[in-house]
Design a protein that fits this description.
This protein is an alpha/beta fold. The protein contains eleven helices and nine strands. The chain has two domains: 2-175, Rossmann fold (3-Layer(aba) Sandwich); 188-284, 2-Layer Sandwich (Pantoate--beta-alanine Ligase, Chain: A,domain 2), CATH 3.30.1300. Helix 8 links the parallel strand 5 and strand 6 (171-175). It is globular, with a radius of gyration of 20 Å. Bound molecules: pantoate.
Length: 291
């Protein structure tokens, strides 16, 4: 595996691949890799001739009071994991390489509508930072396909919308959430959990499973959201939100019977547990209305 820090070298290598007619995949990450990221690499390898990954802790997507300076940076270990997983290229740029004009001087990308709700409501500017760095990484590597985890479902939809709106010639693929045996979604931020919090953490997923069952039993969305938030608080979480949305566009579903889009739902949750802000989601399909 080749490790590249400079944009010029990255362009040369990816240009050679394109000239040779090879299909290139990109897996953007912020490092501190775990089995969930390796599943993204496997997905990428299955869809392309060459697999690249980026490791860049993007300052633009952290709020002033968030964990940018403490975010785990484990580049040597990440590099070993990527090499062992069969990744061909690791792009690990410095901040100056990505933002040569500084954080303030950078042109940014707004994705209206999707950015300000759910996680965007409690993390103002977060998705602007995500959309901006992902657009830059896609332009730097120019892959045919890029893979993102479905755990950050809102992020995935925002990236899809941005790619569509800006006519970027890349296929965006979402890969299923990878979970620990007890159901906890894998995340670099799980390392912030104490041993006692780690015991409680799987209840986030368990509550989503219960919420989906209640929806399928015909309970209305607002009641399901309220019950799940109460259950999380009782378990020791500080819930940010539990929200039932349409998978297609994150809009609130119309009451039954609605359209097929109003039946293809997703329950999304974000909750603090100690120092960790955990997010998770679960798809939930209701019976579609008869045509
Ligand atoms: O999901 C992440 O790890 C980050 O938001 C991403 C997509 C790598 C952009 O920094």
């Amino acid at each position: 595996m080749e490790r590249i820090e400079r944009l010029q070298r990255l362009r040369e290598r990816c240009g050679e691949w394109r000239q040779a007619g090879l299909r290139v995949a990109l897996v953007p990450t912020m490092g501190h890799l775990h089995a969930g990221h390796l599943a993204l690499i496997r997905e990428a390898s299955a869809r392309a001739d060459r697999t690249s990954a980026s490791v860049f802790v993007n300052p633009l997507q952290f709020g002033a009071d968030e964990d940018f300076s403490h975010y785990p940076r484990t580049l040597e270990h990440d590099s070993d994991m990527l090499r062992d997983a069969g990744c061909d290229l690791l792009f690990a740029p410095s901040e100056a390489e990505v933002y040569p004009r500084g954080r303030e001087g950078q042109s940014v990308i707004e994705v209206p509508g999707l950015c300000d709700q759910l996680c965007g409501a409690s993390r103002p500017g977060h998705f602007r930072g995500v959309a901006t760095v992902v657009a830059k990484l896609l332009n730097m590597v120019q892959p045919e396909v890029a893979i993102f985890g479905e755990k950050d479902f809102q992020q995935l939809l925002i990236i899809r919308r941005m790619v569509e709106d800006l006519n970027l010639p890349v296929e965006i693929v979402g890969a299923p959430i990878v979970r620990e045996l007890d159901g906890l979604a894998m995340s670099s931020r799980n390392r912030y959990l104490s041993a006692a919090e780690r015991e409680i953490a799987p209840q986030l997923h368990a509550n989503l499973v219960a919420a989906a069952a209640r929806l399928r039993a015909g309970v209305d969305c607002a009641a399901v959201e309220h019950e799940a938030e109460q259950a999380l608080a009782a378990a020791g979480f500080e819930p940010d939100y539990v929200s039932v949305r349409r998978r297609s566009d994150l809009a609130q579903p119309a009451p039954a019977p609605g359209t097929p889009d109003d039946c293809a739902l997703i329950v999304l949750a974000a909750a603090w547990l100690g120092r960790a802000r955990l997010i998770d989601n679960l798809a939930c399909d209701l019976d579609a209305p008869l045509a």
